[in-house]
Amino acid sequence: MTQSPVQPPPPLPPPPHSAAGNVSRGDVQVRCAGCRVILRVKTGVVEFSCPTCQLPQMLPPELLSRSRQQFSQPPPPPPQSIPPIQQQLKSPPINLPRPPVPAHGIDPTKMQLPCANCQAILNVPHGLTRFSCPQCHVELAVDVSKLNRSLTAPQSTPPISGAAPPVPPPPPPEEVNEEAIEVEREEDEGGTAGETFMDYRPPKLSIGPPHPDPIVETSSLSAVQPPEPTYDLRIKEELERTKALSCLQIETLVYACQRHLQHLADGTRAGFFVGDGAGVGKGRTIAGLIWENWKHGRRKALWISIGSDLKYDARRDLDDVGASSVGVNPLNKLPYSKLDSKNVGVKDGVVFLTYNSLIASSEKGRSRLQQLVQWCGPEFDGLLIFDECHKAKNLVPEAGSQPTRIGQAVVDIQDKIPQARVLYCSATGASEPRNMGYMVRLGLWGAGTSFSDFNKFLGALDKGGVGALELVAMDMKARGMYVCRTLSYKGAEFEIVEARLEAGMEAMYNKSAEFWAELRIELLSASAFLPNEKPNPSQLWRLYWSSHQRFFRHLCMSAKVPVTVRLAKKALSTNKCVVIGLQSTGEARTEEAVTKYGLELDDFVSGPRELLLKFVEENYPLPEEPEPLSEDDNPKELHRKRHSASPGVSIRGRVRKMAKRKPESDDESDLQSEAESADDSNDSDDEFQICQICSGEDERKKLLHCSECDKLFHPDCVIPPVTDLPSEAWVCYSCKEKTEEYIQARRIYIADMQKRYDAALERKSKIIDIIRSLNLPNNPLDDIVDQLGGPDKVAEITGRRGMLVRASNGKGVTYQARNTKDITMEMVNMHEKQQFMDGKKFVAIISEAGSAGVSLQADRRAANQRRRVHLTLELPWSADRAIQQFGRTHRSNQTSAPEYRLLFTNLGGERRFASIVAKRLETLGALTQGDRRKVMLLSKPFLSCLAGPSLSAYNYDSNFGKKSLMVMYRGIMEQEKLPVVPPGCSTDEPETIKEFLTKARAALIAVGIVRDSVLANGKDVGKLSGRIIDSDMHDVGRFLNRLLGLPPDIQNRLFELFTSILDVLVHNARIEGSFDSGIVDMKANSVELLTPPKTVHVDHMSGASTMLFTFTLDRGVTWESASSMLEGKRRDGLGSASDGFYESKREWLGRRHFILAFESAASGLFKIVRPAVGESIREMSLSELKTKYRKLSSLEKARNGWEDEYEVSSKQCMHGRKCKLGEYCTVGRRIQEVNVVGGLILPIWGTIEKALSKQARHSHKRIRVIRIETTTDNQRIVGLSIPNAAVETVLQDLAWVQEIDD
């Protein structure tokens, strides 16, 4: 890296805040570039950090002159050079006392330049001329010529008497070597990817026949040797005789049994992890392991898998290895009582169960887990097999979610039987480190390790990135606890097929998006008239958005049906057979429709329509329907009810809620009781009462008593007079009028409420009618089966119980069960699979629920040996499921590899589903199938795809994705300027950008991302505004989900804007060296081991060691080799007129740099070859090439310059002899020393992390995993790169160092 020779001036202590009117004379007021708070900067202070947000910054240029004029301290004599920041501002020097502490946030290896927009001080790598401000995201450009002039501008200031002694001027700065910057960036990114997979054969065992199909292993894992095998199999002779297991499977048996003899530091028995991919034969390997343990007298085993159907495969595998005497007892067929009791009678053998059974319990509260632990007993040392153990993931979920019960149960059973021989089996067992939490028997964390608990282990891996995961896999293999091989995908074809929306489907999609937006407004309006507590608004909107997502997901699937049918028919016509993979069968919507409309329907059920109908019917907000007044609700009846009602009961029989008051003391209670009894006695003793009209006194029995107001009247005083005293309750005329008014008012209120209810009901009915009239697609599964010939031609291997079948006359469809009298529902999928394998049906449709563990490859033993064309109509939600589905059609013993067709629509939002899978696939390779870089080209074998495929381009739910989303939202809301021009817009036509932003805001309002939207008045009339809540600003998943509900045009434009911003951020991260590029391949013309490797650590359990390797790399290209390259291009007719040797237009340290450039046929850009470092990773455009270099016509001049640079670079870096890192700097050096720590890494992880944190270069601070191969003997090493400057620190921190013999 280019080193700046001068430290920038550190900032003075931050000034305090000041109110506007409190500024001292001579002080300067400035607004912070970060938090926008107004700060008071003392006279003479140029650089400072904001005390609120800690952002390092400096005075803007327009305030510098004022600061200088007010600063009374005399300046020093004229300096010979100017401090860097002042140089860049082209201002006279300010000589201030320098505090010894370095500037906060200032990187001394970079230039410090102020942003032209927000004035924040930026650390800019030397030579970088275009970049975005990370604070305000404005695009910036550096004028190098002006910068150079400012560096050499003469400065003079007359001395002032009484000045403090001047600070000695720093030495003149070195020139910025742009070429060195470019080479340094490439070295930090690493070389190109080598071969990802290597052919695999057991390195230390030769027992058994070769595997029937080619097997491969990642090149990283192949660089690690397993420990020496010491275990002697009891079934060895039997296996050699029967050849039931291949050499690979026998190798797994040996290492698993050997590992099971070891114990962890906490006393539990060590476990083993089989990470083999589909087709290697994990089932038969497990059967062999059970048989080996049976021979040792361990006759009980627990086999936990994902489906009860797989018990038939378990039985078959045991028979194949000769273990017919071992019984298989399916737990789901057994009672909850003791398994070894007389009634049940399971004394030994295999108990086969599913993960769901592990958490099941009876009505009496007895759990299966307790039953199994009781059967095993406390001293159990037999096999505990977790087959397809990825089912137990999410034991340690991300923040905000709960651990799964299955994950907890898997840990619990391991705790309860500590001596069990645990076997973890899964091709996707650790798709990310978080999902390894249940693998407690591997001994990667806990007592005796570098990590006290799983969270510490997880934290270390998160820091290490993708490469660290690969190291964990290598570590486990080196310790003899892990194998991971997979079937070679040689011969398999892979293609991503874009299923563009047809005109009719696009119109349907637009109509649907419009309808959902209107439905949202309708629901908001309907909810506004309801009380706050009914219905629950958060519940309503949760259901709305989940239904919204499922609806458009159905629509995306339906859009791919025509392409799916077309591809399937084309495959069938070329004598191939078809497997179609999907996830959702639409069974729930079908059963609801059948329940509602009957078994016979006019056509197939439309899943989207039924989903919409169900949502509106069950969740449309209706006001409460009022209870009408009954005939009894007349004044007379109301008086009677009131008179007869209990004091605490209303006239409608509802108990009145009365406030309960507790007396303050017993004395108070006694006083109240006395007062009440006194009142009672007065009432009973008083025989005379007063008339309310004439105030005359009379006997109570002669007065009329109103039952409503409780007042007394003379019969003659009331108008009209009452002649006879009534025998029943009487109501005075005043109360009678009030009661009638109340009833009349109530009638009006009820009528009004009824009218409102009827109107809402009518609106709901109209919405339902609109839904019924929408032209929506049928259930994709039924549609495909129907178009490909019906159930007689298509084998369905799914989890649904029934299906709709078209009537024989072609009119209408009928619902029928999938099973028949002869075939039970439990066996229907096995029957359908057999029909397909026997060639009676040439199309199979599989879902995850029905196809787990099913083999559908072109098996040599099957009648149907046609080549499989595997269409993924619907991508699974996780990489685990994706790989399991891909593995259904690609397995051992097949006549041909399958063709894979992954279908996507041209809708940006649909990539949400690919995003989730890609996030897993990107890291999946570490513990299953290799590095993330393997899928850059579709021309590579499909295996590359499984481990981080071209799908990695669709991984948006990352840190960079979240940041991109925030930048996009702020740009759309016009809070900041967008870093890219929106799609379909032009900077020459600003109105196009303005129009796009308006449409984008409207779209985000329509899908509920922008809230509290307001239409502005005044000068911004018609402008939409609103807010995006903080939790939505980084929620990429929500953005991509909601995006699906927009019309295709704006959906795709928004998505393109998002990905463009993501590309910019990733590009900037690469330049800054902060992008995790996974494993880096170190390439050179000559790679040799400089010294014998040193052993720096030994694992006491397995004997595996950690080694320090030092390599010498010669990266240079001689003049003869360069000339041959150019001549070869011209001879083959592949050259262009611009091919040839070039020299740099600028000089650095009195030298020019020479390169060879030739056009790449693939990209149209130019490949660059340098004398010192060979071929560059980055290709250059012709315009950039001509800007920086001039073509040489004289071969003699080119030769002299090339050979001179080749020679000088063997001893010196590109920064020259005054480079600050001295001999440790390798930028552009032809002869390079590289240190790699290989072998076991986890035990010394903390030591290396600590040593790297002390390094000067930013790129040296992060943990970097590299792969290097010697050119003499092809020895391959994968490990952590240790910079030369850090080697001594690492060795000192480790306990001991010992050279090993050759």
Automatic annotation (TrEMBL):
Residues 1-23, 66-97, 151-177, 622-686 are annotated as: Disordered. One of its GO terms (cellular component) is nucleus. Residues 688-738 form the PHD-type domain. It holds the Pfam family SBNO. GO terms for biological process: epigenetic regulation of gene expression; heat acclimation; positive regulation of cellular response to heat; regulation of DNA-templated transcription. The keyword Transcription regulation applies. Residues 83-93 have a biased composition (Low complexity). Keywords: Metal-binding, Transcription, Transcription regulation, Zinc, Zinc-finger. GO terms for molecular function: chromatin DNA binding; histone binding; promoter-specific chromatin binding; zinc ion binding. The keyword Zinc-finger applies. Residues 624-634, 665-686 have a biased composition (Acidic residues). InterPro entries: P-loop_NTPase, SBNO_a/b_dom, SBNO_Helicase_C_dom, SNO, SNO_AAA, Zinc_finger_PHD-type_CS, Znf_FYVE_PHD, Znf_PHD. Belongs to the SBNO family. PANTHER family: PROTEIN FORGETTER 1, STRAWBERRY NOTCH-RELATED. This is PHD-type domain-containing protein. It comes from Arabis alpina (Alpine rock-cress).
